[in-house]
Design a protein that fits this description.
137 residues, alpha+beta, 34% helix, globular, disordered N terminus
Length: 137
């Protein structure tokens, strides 16, 4: 235990205080809520794109993460293209882990699809975006 002016801080191994541990737990919970909301937004955008084949749809998921979705029919294979920006709507960096969580949710939604990471987009190049394509028969 360490005494500081006006409060007691309980130190844990590694120097983390109980106050800091509580702050970290709150941040993890907020992150979980945030990723669930972004996942719901992504899956809704994909559902909308499935009903509007051939039309690229774009949205800022949760007002934070720019996303693009395009569904194409390519010779009997339905292709779902999804791109998530590496930069948030406010210009800050989007953590790779968040994009991984969202792409995993998309892959779980379509378990029979062939999942492919791409560096292109059907309508041309996309800078600062991470792109995946899911092929469905």
């Amino acid at each position: 235990m360490m005494r500081t002016p006006g409060s007691l801080i309980f130190m844990r191994r590694g120097g983390c205080s109980r106050r800091r541990m509580t702050g970290c737990a709150i941040a993890r919970k907020q992150s979980s809520v945030c990723s669930r909301a972004l996942t719901a937004g992504l899956l809704q955008l994909v559902a909308d794109a499935l009903s509007r084949r051939g039309t690229e749809l774009a949205a800022d998921l949760g007002g934070y993460l720019p996303c693009r979705v395009l569904v194409l029919d390519s010779g009997g294979v339905e292709e779902i293209w999804c791109a998530l920006s590496g930069r948030a709507a406010d210009g800050t960096h989007v953590r790779d882990r968040l994009r991984d969580i969202l792409f995993a949710a998309l892959e779980n939604r379509f378990p029979d699809a062939v999942f492919e990471v791409r560096s292109d987009w059907p309508a041309g190049q996309v800078g600062w975006w991470e792109v995946v394509r899911l092929g469905l028969r």
